[in-house]
Design a protein that fits this description.
Its EC number is 6.3.2.36. Homodimer. The chain is an alpha/beta fold. Helices cover 55% and strands 10% of the residues. It has a five-stranded parallel sheet with strand order 2-1-5-6-7, sandwiched between helices. Strands 3-4 form a two-stranded antiparallel sheet. Helix 1 packs antiparallel against helix 2 and helix 3 crosses helix 10. The chain starts with 10 loop residues before the first helix and ends with a helix. The structure holds adenosine-5'-triphosphate. The site of adenosine-5'-triphosphate has 19 residues, from helix 2 and helix 8.
Length: 256
Protein backbone atom coordinates (compact mmCIF):
# COMPACT_ATOMS: atom_id res chain seq x y z
CA UNK A 1 0.00 0.00 0.00
CA UNK A 2 3.03 2.26 0.26
CA UNK A 3 2.61 3.48 -3.32
CA UNK A 4 -0.45 5.58 -2.42
CA UNK A 5 1.11 8.99 -1.59
CA UNK A 6 -0.22 10.39 1.70
CA UNK A 7 -0.75 13.84 0.21
CA UNK A 8 -2.93 12.52 -2.60
CA UNK A 9 -6.22 14.47 -2.52
CA UNK A 10 -8.19 11.24 -2.56
CA UNK A 11 -5.86 9.28 -0.28
CA UNK A 12 -8.66 7.90 1.88
CA UNK A 13 -10.62 6.53 -1.04
CA UNK A 14 -7.50 5.03 -2.60
CA UNK A 15 -6.56 3.34 0.68
CA UNK A 16 -10.03 1.78 0.85
CA UNK A 17 -9.52 0.45 -2.64
CA UNK A 18 -6.20 -1.01 -1.56
CA UNK A 19 -7.87 -2.76 1.38
CA UNK A 20 -10.37 -4.37 -0.97
CA UNK A 21 -7.56 -5.47 -3.32
CA UNK A 22 -5.58 -6.89 -0.40
CA UNK A 23 -8.74 -8.71 0.78
CA UNK A 24 -9.10 -10.13 -2.71
CA UNK A 25 -5.51 -11.37 -2.70
CA UNK A 26 -6.07 -12.98 0.73
CA UNK A 27 -9.24 -14.75 -0.40
CA UNK A 28 -11.58 -12.70 1.78
CA UNK A 29 -13.11 -10.62 -1.01
CA UNK A 30 -14.48 -12.16 -4.22
CA UNK A 31 -13.90 -10.57 -7.60
CA UNK A 32 -17.52 -9.37 -7.67
CA UNK A 33 -16.72 -7.43 -4.50
CA UNK A 34 -14.51 -5.15 -6.57
CA UNK A 35 -17.54 -4.18 -8.64
CA UNK A 36 -19.57 -3.42 -5.50
CA UNK A 37 -16.78 -1.20 -4.23
CA UNK A 38 -16.70 0.71 -7.51
CA UNK A 39 -20.43 1.26 -7.41
CA UNK A 40 -20.17 2.52 -3.84
CA UNK A 41 -17.31 4.87 -4.74
CA UNK A 42 -19.40 6.47 -7.46
CA UNK A 43 -22.18 7.32 -5.01
CA UNK A 44 -19.65 8.45 -2.42
CA UNK A 45 -18.17 10.88 -4.95
CA UNK A 46 -21.62 12.28 -5.63
CA UNK A 47 -22.35 12.99 -1.95
CA UNK A 48 -18.90 14.58 -1.44
CA UNK A 49 -17.23 11.68 0.41
CA UNK A 50 -18.51 12.82 3.77
CA UNK A 51 -21.25 11.85 6.21
CA UNK A 52 -24.17 14.13 5.50
CA UNK A 53 -26.41 15.30 8.39
CA UNK A 54 -29.34 13.18 7.16
CA UNK A 55 -27.19 10.04 7.33
CA UNK A 56 -25.97 11.03 10.77
CA UNK A 57 -29.57 11.24 11.95
CA UNK A 58 -30.28 7.77 10.47
CA UNK A 59 -27.20 6.51 12.30
CA UNK A 60 -28.69 7.74 15.57
CA UNK A 61 -31.98 5.99 14.79
CA UNK A 62 -30.07 2.81 13.94
CA UNK A 63 -28.06 2.94 17.16
CA UNK A 64 -31.23 3.50 19.19
CA UNK A 65 -32.80 0.46 17.48
CA UNK A 66 -29.73 -1.67 18.17
CA UNK A 67 -29.57 -0.61 21.82
CA UNK A 68 -33.26 -1.43 22.29
CA UNK A 69 -32.98 -4.73 20.49
CA UNK A 70 -33.11 -8.06 22.36
CA UNK A 71 -30.84 -9.95 19.97
CA UNK A 72 -28.93 -7.76 17.51
CA UNK A 73 -26.70 -9.34 14.87
CA UNK A 74 -24.14 -7.70 12.58
CA UNK A 75 -24.01 -9.49 9.24
CA UNK A 76 -20.56 -9.37 7.67
CA UNK A 77 -19.46 -10.16 4.14
CA UNK A 78 -16.03 -10.12 2.49
CA UNK A 79 -15.95 -6.40 1.62
CA UNK A 80 -17.09 -5.37 5.10
CA UNK A 81 -14.46 -7.59 6.71
CA UNK A 82 -11.76 -6.14 4.47
CA UNK A 83 -12.77 -2.51 5.01
CA UNK A 84 -13.78 -2.24 8.68
CA UNK A 85 -12.84 -5.39 10.63
CA UNK A 86 -11.73 -3.69 13.86
CA UNK A 87 -14.63 -1.28 13.81
CA UNK A 88 -17.16 -4.10 13.42
CA UNK A 89 -15.64 -5.93 16.39
CA UNK A 90 -15.64 -2.73 18.43
CA UNK A 91 -19.26 -1.94 17.63
CA UNK A 92 -20.37 -5.50 18.42
CA UNK A 93 -18.77 -5.21 21.87
CA UNK A 94 -20.34 -1.86 22.65
CA UNK A 95 -23.89 -2.78 21.62
CA UNK A 96 -23.52 -6.40 22.67
CA UNK A 97 -24.31 -7.83 19.22
CA UNK A 98 -23.33 -11.10 17.60
CA UNK A 99 -21.19 -11.07 14.46
CA UNK A 100 -22.17 -13.47 11.69
CA UNK A 101 -20.35 -14.05 8.43
CA UNK A 102 -22.90 -14.35 5.67
CA UNK A 103 -21.82 -14.56 2.05
CA UNK A 104 -23.57 -14.28 -1.29
CA UNK A 105 -20.76 -16.20 -2.95
CA UNK A 106 -20.43 -18.70 -0.14
CA UNK A 107 -17.75 -21.30 0.12
CA UNK A 108 -17.00 -22.92 3.46
CA UNK A 109 -13.35 -22.03 2.92
CA UNK A 110 -14.07 -18.32 2.54
CA UNK A 111 -16.44 -18.27 5.54
CA UNK A 112 -13.69 -19.86 7.61
CA UNK A 113 -11.10 -17.39 6.33
CA UNK A 114 -13.24 -14.43 7.36
CA UNK A 115 -14.14 -16.00 10.73
CA UNK A 116 -10.43 -16.61 11.44
CA UNK A 117 -9.47 -13.15 10.19
CA UNK A 118 -11.93 -11.48 12.60
CA UNK A 119 -10.89 -13.72 15.48
CA UNK A 120 -7.23 -12.93 14.90
CA UNK A 121 -8.17 -9.28 15.25
CA UNK A 122 -9.83 -9.86 18.60
CA UNK A 123 -13.43 -10.96 17.97
CA UNK A 124 -14.46 -13.31 20.77
CA UNK A 125 -17.10 -15.11 18.77
CA UNK A 126 -17.89 -15.10 15.07
CA UNK A 127 -20.86 -17.09 13.82
CA UNK A 128 -21.52 -18.39 10.33
CA UNK A 129 -19.79 -21.73 10.05
CA UNK A 130 -22.78 -23.62 11.44
CA UNK A 131 -25.87 -23.03 9.43
CA UNK A 132 -29.43 -23.99 8.64
CA UNK A 133 -31.30 -23.16 5.45
CA UNK A 134 -33.07 -20.48 7.41
CA UNK A 135 -34.25 -17.85 4.93
CA UNK A 136 -37.00 -19.18 2.69
CA UNK A 137 -37.46 -17.85 -0.83
CA UNK A 138 -33.81 -17.28 -1.54
CA UNK A 139 -31.95 -19.34 -4.07
CA UNK A 140 -28.56 -17.83 -3.27
CA UNK A 141 -26.19 -19.19 -0.69
CA UNK A 142 -27.27 -16.39 1.58
CA UNK A 143 -30.31 -18.40 2.70
CA UNK A 144 -27.85 -20.21 4.96
CA UNK A 145 -27.89 -18.60 8.38
CA UNK A 146 -26.54 -19.50 11.78
CA UNK A 147 -29.24 -20.71 14.21
CA UNK A 148 -27.52 -18.76 17.01
CA UNK A 149 -27.23 -15.62 14.86
CA UNK A 150 -29.40 -14.12 12.15
CA UNK A 151 -32.09 -16.78 12.56
CA UNK A 152 -32.56 -15.74 16.18
CA UNK A 153 -32.05 -12.01 15.68
CA UNK A 154 -34.69 -9.34 16.00
CA UNK A 155 -32.51 -6.62 14.44
CA UNK A 156 -29.92 -7.28 11.74
CA UNK A 157 -27.33 -4.72 10.63
CA UNK A 158 -26.30 -5.35 7.02
CA UNK A 159 -23.83 -3.58 4.76
CA UNK A 160 -22.92 -3.89 1.10
CA UNK A 161 -25.90 -6.17 0.85
CA UNK A 162 -27.90 -7.57 -2.05
CA UNK A 163 -31.52 -6.54 -2.28
CA UNK A 164 -33.01 -10.04 -2.43
CA UNK A 165 -31.74 -10.98 0.95
CA UNK A 166 -32.77 -7.76 2.63
CA UNK A 167 -36.28 -8.32 1.28
CA UNK A 168 -36.17 -11.95 2.48
CA UNK A 169 -34.97 -10.90 5.94
CA UNK A 170 -37.94 -8.53 6.15
CA UNK A 171 -40.30 -11.35 5.14
CA UNK A 172 -39.16 -13.48 8.09
CA UNK A 173 -39.86 -10.61 10.46
CA UNK A 174 -36.43 -9.10 11.01
CA UNK A 175 -35.88 -5.39 11.44
CA UNK A 176 -33.12 -4.46 9.05
CA UNK A 177 -30.63 -1.60 9.26
CA UNK A 178 -28.66 -1.14 6.03
CA UNK A 179 -25.51 0.83 5.35
CA UNK A 180 -25.59 1.44 1.62
CA UNK A 181 -24.27 4.40 -0.35
CA UNK A 182 -26.89 3.83 -3.04
CA UNK A 183 -30.30 5.20 -1.97
CA UNK A 184 -31.90 3.62 -5.06
CA UNK A 185 -30.79 0.06 -4.26
CA UNK A 186 -33.37 -2.55 -3.35
CA UNK A 187 -31.56 -2.96 -0.05
CA UNK A 188 -32.03 0.72 0.81
CA UNK A 189 -35.67 0.51 -0.25
CA UNK A 190 -36.42 -2.63 1.77
CA UNK A 191 -34.60 -1.73 4.99
CA UNK A 192 -36.24 -0.20 8.07
CA UNK A 193 -33.35 2.22 8.45
CA UNK A 194 -31.08 3.08 5.52
CA UNK A 195 -27.80 4.82 6.17
CA UNK A 196 -26.53 6.43 2.96
CA UNK A 197 -22.90 6.55 3.94
CA UNK A 198 -19.61 4.75 3.44
CA UNK A 199 -19.14 1.91 5.94
CA UNK A 200 -15.70 3.30 6.68
CA UNK A 201 -17.29 6.47 8.10
CA UNK A 202 -20.63 5.08 9.27
CA UNK A 203 -19.36 2.32 11.57
CA UNK A 204 -16.89 4.57 13.47
CA UNK A 205 -19.68 7.11 13.91
CA UNK A 206 -22.03 4.39 15.14
CA UNK A 207 -19.40 3.48 17.73
CA UNK A 208 -19.16 7.09 18.95
CA UNK A 209 -22.93 7.47 19.09
CA UNK A 210 -23.43 4.12 20.83
CA UNK A 211 -21.00 5.11 23.59
CA UNK A 212 -23.06 8.23 24.28
CA UNK A 213 -26.55 6.85 23.63
CA UNK A 214 -26.00 3.80 25.84
CA UNK A 215 -26.39 6.12 28.82
CA UNK A 216 -29.76 7.47 27.67
CA UNK A 217 -33.03 6.25 29.18
CA UNK A 218 -34.94 3.73 27.04
CA UNK A 219 -37.83 6.14 26.62
CA UNK A 220 -35.58 8.59 24.84
CA UNK A 221 -34.26 5.89 22.51
CA UNK A 222 -37.83 4.86 21.70
CA UNK A 223 -38.75 8.46 20.92
CA UNK A 224 -35.87 8.66 18.46
CA UNK A 225 -37.23 5.65 16.57
CA UNK A 226 -40.92 6.50 16.70
CA UNK A 227 -40.68 9.61 14.52
CA UNK A 228 -38.58 7.94 11.83
CA UNK A 229 -39.89 7.06 8.39
CA UNK A 230 -37.40 5.39 6.05
CA UNK A 231 -39.22 6.14 2.80
CA UNK A 232 -39.25 9.81 3.71
CA UNK A 233 -35.55 9.60 4.54
CA UNK A 234 -34.75 8.01 1.18
CA UNK A 235 -36.63 10.82 -0.52
CA UNK A 236 -34.61 13.34 1.48
CA UNK A 237 -31.36 11.64 0.47
CA UNK A 238 -32.33 11.84 -3.20
CA UNK A 239 -33.29 15.51 -2.90
CA UNK A 240 -29.92 16.12 -1.21
CA UNK A 241 -28.13 14.53 -4.16
CA UNK A 242 -30.20 16.54 -6.65
CA UNK A 243 -29.46 19.81 -4.87
CA UNK A 244 -25.77 19.04 -4.53
CA UNK A 245 -25.49 18.28 -8.23
CA UNK A 246 -27.47 21.39 -9.14
CA UNK A 247 -25.23 23.60 -6.98
CA UNK A 248 -22.13 22.04 -8.47
CA UNK A 249 -23.41 22.64 -12.00
CA UNK A 250 -24.29 26.26 -11.20
CA UNK A 251 -20.86 26.82 -9.67
CA UNK A 252 -19.19 25.52 -12.81
CA UNK A 253 -21.40 27.54 -15.11
CA UNK A 254 -20.88 30.78 -13.23
CA UNK A 255 -17.17 30.80 -14.13
CA UNK A 256 -16.47 30.92 -17.85
P1 LIG B 1 -29.42 -4.19 -4.74
O1 LIG B 1 -29.72 -5.62 -5.07
O2 LIG B 1 -29.65 -3.86 -3.28
O3 LIG B 1 -30.08 -3.18 -5.63
P2 LIG B 1 -26.80 -4.89 -5.67
O4 LIG B 1 -26.89 -6.28 -5.18
O5 LIG B 1 -26.93 -4.67 -7.12
O6 LIG B 1 -27.84 -3.97 -4.92
P3 LIG B 1 -23.98 -4.80 -5.03
O7 LIG B 1 -23.21 -4.56 -6.27
O8 LIG B 1 -24.01 -6.16 -4.45
O9 LIG B 1 -25.46 -4.20 -5.16
O10 LIG B 1 -23.36 -3.78 -3.95
C1 LIG B 1 -23.92 -3.60 -2.73
C2 LIG B 1 -24.22 -2.15 -2.43
O11 LIG B 1 -23.23 -1.65 -1.55
C3 LIG B 1 -24.27 -1.16 -3.61
O12 LIG B 1 -25.50 -0.49 -3.57
C4 LIG B 1 -23.13 -0.15 -3.33
O13 LIG B 1 -23.52 1.17 -3.64
C5 LIG B 1 -22.94 -0.29 -1.85
N1 LIG B 1 -21.55 -0.04 -1.40
C6 LIG B 1 -20.39 -0.40 -2.00
N2 LIG B 1 -19.32 -0.04 -1.29
C7 LIG B 1 -19.81 0.57 -0.16
C8 LIG B 1 -19.21 1.14 0.99
N3 LIG B 1 -17.89 1.18 1.12
N4 LIG B 1 -20.03 1.66 1.93
C9 LIG B 1 -21.37 1.61 1.80
N5 LIG B 1 -22.00 1.08 0.74
C10 LIG B 1 -21.25 0.57 -0.24
Amino acid sequence: MEYVPRDHPRYRSLMEREKIIEGFKNGIVVINGLISQGRGEAFDYIIGEKTIPLAEDSIEVAVAMLLLSNYPVISVNGNAAALVPDEIINLSNIIDAKIEVNLFYRTEERVKKIVDFLKERGAKEVLGLEYVEGIPGLSSERRKVDPRGILKADVVLVMLEDGDRTEALKKIGKRVIAIDLNPFSRTSMAADVSIMDNVTRAIPLMIDKARIMKKLPKEELKKKISNYNNRRRLGEYIIYIKERLENEAKRLMSFP
